[in-house]
Design brief:
Elements lengths: L6 H9 L17 E5 L6 E4 L13 E7 L3 H9 L3 E6 L2 E7 L1
Antiparallel strand pairs: 1-2, 2-3, 3-5, 4-5
Length: 98
């Protein structure tokens, strides 16, 4: 008969308490954060002009950065009509038409 070691259930419970994927601040990837997008507290950010973004800024769209580890947030931005345009460090840049 196979028996689980006593520590295994504790390991399973404790791994559920580990923090989710982390990412560096947008500034570490050369981005200038303006505000959260689409609303306060969201993980994606409207990003301003910097050497990392100047090629992708457009007066007809909002440039948003989402951490690469946040695939759900990236999928949401694409579902609302956003177009992935580049990756800057740990951030996916997405152009969202105004």
């Amino acid at each position: 008969m196979f028996r689980l070691p006593v520590f295994l259930p504790a390991f399973v419970v404790l791994t559920g308490c580990l923090p989710m994927a982390s990412y560096s601040p947008p500034e570490d990837s050369g981005l200038v954060p303006v505000r959260a997008y689409p609303s306060a507290g969201d993980v994606c950010l409207v990003v301003g002009e910097s050497p990392a973004t100047q090629e992708y800024l457009d007066h007809t769209a909002t440039l948003v950065g989402c951490p690469l580890s946040e695939s759900g947030a990236i999928a949401d931005r694409i579902a609302e009509g956003g177009m992935p345009v580049a990756i800057a460090g740990e951030w996916q840049l997405i152009s969202i038409p105004d």
